[in-house]
């Protein structure tokens, strides 16, 4: 069996640590609102998904560079992440008392995974824009939604 060459520990550099650390911190920040509202997927879930996505992106880039473009397709990273987040999200969505719950949290996990992949790929403008816009969508629009539609059970949390 032919394996790729091992990556030695001296490869652990500031760029790698930055990509993974930013992903973990942003994942925690993205999960903070969900945690404060008592949703099923909060700080740890978002932090782990964002960090894992970044680590997977870094691994995909490293493997692509080691093996060359003829032997690996790094775009499969998005397929695998989409499938995983879909499974986790499906487990979160609940139909109870005639209402569907946790759809926003499931969708937010998808954004968290994309932010993690962008961190792993070092696409800092995308990371900044996606995290900022995601927080605005969740927090600011959540406040507006609770004020405009105060009678729904989802807005009373």
H/E topology pattern:
HHHEEHH
Query: How many strand elements?
Result: 2
Task: Quickly give the structural class.
Answer: mainly alpha
Radius of gyration (CA) equals 18 Å
Q: What separation lies between the terminal Cα atoms?
A: 55 Å
Q: Tally the helices: what do you get?
A: 5
Strand order of the largest sheet: 1-2
Uncertain runs: none
Report the principal-axis shape.
Answer: elongated
Major β-sheet profile: 2 strands, antiparallel
Mean pLDDT: 81
What percent of residues are in strands?
A: under 5%
Estimated helix fraction: 55-70%
State the gist of this model.
The protein has five helices and two strands; from the N terminus they run αααββαα. The protein has helices spanning 14-36, 43-67, 76-92, 103-121, 124-148, and strands at 94-96, 99-101.
How would you characterize this protein structure?
With 157 residues, the protein is mostly helical. Helix content is 69%, strand content 4%. The protein has helices spanning 14-36, 43-67, 76-92, 103-121, 124-148, and strands at residues 94-96, 99-101. Strands 1-2 form a two-stranded antiparallel ribbon. Strand 1 and strand 2 form a beta hairpin. Helix 2 (43-67) runs parallel beside helix 4 (103-121).
């Amino acid at each position: 069996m032919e394996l790729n060459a091992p990556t030695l520990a001296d490869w652990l550099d500031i760029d790698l640590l930055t990509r993974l650390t930013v992903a973990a911190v942003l994942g925690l920040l993205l999960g903070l609102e969900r945690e404060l509202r008592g949703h099923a997927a909060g700080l740890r879930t978002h932090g782990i998904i964002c960090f894992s996505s970044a680590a997977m992106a870094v691994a995909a880039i490293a493997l692509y560079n080691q093996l060359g473009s003829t032997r690996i397709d790094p775009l499969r990273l998005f397929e695998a992440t989409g499938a995983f987040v879909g499974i986790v999200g499906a487990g979160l969505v609940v139909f109870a008392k005639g209402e569907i719950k946790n759809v926003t949290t499931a969708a937010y996990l998808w954004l968290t995974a994309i932010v993690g992949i962008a961190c792993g790929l070092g696409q800092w403008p995308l990371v900044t824009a996606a995290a900022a816009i995601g927080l605005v969508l969740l927090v600011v629009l959540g406040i507006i939604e609770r004020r405009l539609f105060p009678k729904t059970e989802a807005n009373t949390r």
